[in-house]
Amino acid sequence: MSSLEERDVGVAAAPGSSSAGLGVGAVGVAVEAVAGVAAMQEEVAIRREGPEPDPDEPPKKRVKLPEGEAGKLEERLYSVLCCTVCLDLPKASVYQCTNGHLMCAGCFIHLLADSRLKEEQATCPNCRCEISKNLCCRNLAVEKAVSELPTECTFCLKQFPRSSLERHQKEECQDRVTQCKYKRIGCPWQGPFHELPAHESECSHPTKTGTELMGILGEMDQSHRRDMQLYNSIFSLLCYEKIGFTEVQFRPYRTDDFITRLYYETPRFTVLNQTWVLKARVNDSERNPNLSCKRTLSFQLILKSKVNSALECSFLLLKGPYDDVWIKPVIHHHSFSNDTNETDYVPLPISDSVECNKLLAAKNINLRLFIFQVQK
Asked: What is the widest separation between alpha-carbon atoms in the chain?
């Protein structure tokens, strides 16, 4: 009988038979073989799954995806559609260079403004091709795609499409910050919208005495009077007999200094039978305004005509008919004569540096000038 047959007989033999010892040995060999196969399978599974996570690893650490595995569609689109300058998703218009690299409106305008300040040709930060308002165009497909990507609400931390986030945060979110309806009589409360009814039912301001409310309303009236004073002044100026206005175009020039500086000047124009010129400068002629994040424009009005007597005038600048820059009207006064034919530089009343970059990025700055001659 062969050894294999003897093992089979031993396994089938009854306990206590002469072949029982041989059967026990065969079972041991089989058990060891099965255990070895299981260990090999477990090792293969560990290799596929990777090492066990480190218990000391920070919980917020982002897990790197293995090669060949894709993350969420939103994460992949984020890296594809983001601005090449600020690396953030555009919030409004999206521009692209001739090679297709994307730039959000803010960064695009900033690049054009920087090139104007440095007297260089603006280039794409990726491929270094030339960019300008004529060479670049908007990418509407990217704008629509970005508007459909999910984003997190600042207040409730829920996910919403970017196109509907603004409406949600202003009108629908129960956690949005709101103010008490008695703010007009001095209540300073601010809190989430869902707590507003409870607060208003217990607010103490409606029960204040008339004397207390008069003090609060007095401060509010003072602020309102400051706003109304400007409009009343403009209405008064519109009643003057001699009023003139014109569209002015500031053109960029450079000084003759060793380090040239950017300034703007208009061609000569005629208003109220007199010849005038407007000049403007950036950051009050700062040495390197391109290195500053805060940018301003200031201007002065110059009388080029010779006059026989002093010319008392009020003037103000407003945005042009086709410009999108917002300018708050400010009235300036000056008495022009042959000796004092230039006003001091006064700030152009724009809201912030973003508006200033819009003006600097433009080829020319188009504004509207009003001059009112004060009657003696």
From this structure: 143
Give me the DSSP letters along 267-286.
Answer: PPEEETTEEEEEEEEETTT-
Residue 43, C-beta contacts closer than 8 angstroms, at least 6 positions apart: none
CA distances from 211 to 186, 189, 219, 224 (A): 13, 21, 13, 20
Neighbours of 209 (CB within 10 A): 7
Residues 6+ apart with CB under 8 A from 78: 89, 149
Contact 336, 241 (CB under 8 A): no
Closest listed residue to residue 255, CA positions, set 276, 281, 278: 281
At 39 the pLDDT is 53
**CA 293 – CA 325 distance, rounded (Å):** 19
Distance of CA 5 to the CA centre of its chain: 84
Question: Which string of b and e fits 273-295 if b means at least 16 CB within 10 Å?
Answer: ebebbbbbbbbeebeebbeeeeb
Which among 354, 374, 368, 351 is positioned nearest to 104, based on CA atoms? 354
pLDDT in tens, 195-235: 999 998 888 888 888 887 887 788 778 878 887 888 888 88
| Confidence at 248, pLDDT banded by 50, 70, 90 | very high
- Would you say residue 305 has pLDDT above 90? yes
Cβ atoms of 249 and 366 within 8 Å: the answer is: yes
Decide if 203 contacts 196 (C-beta within 8 A): no
**pLDDT number for residue 58:** 46
Query: Distance (Å, rounded) from C-alpha 173 to C-alpha 158?
Result: 10
For residue 271, the tally of other CB atoms under 10 A from its CB is: 19
Q: Which residue has the tokens 């491929």?
A: 127
pLDDT tier for residue 166 given thresholds of 50, 70 and 90:
confident
Q: Residue 95 class from Cβ within 10 Å (0-12 exposed, 13-18 middle, 19+ buried)?
A: buried
Residue 5, C-beta contacts closer than 8 angstroms, at least 6 positions apart? none
Specify which residues 297 forms β-bridges with.
282
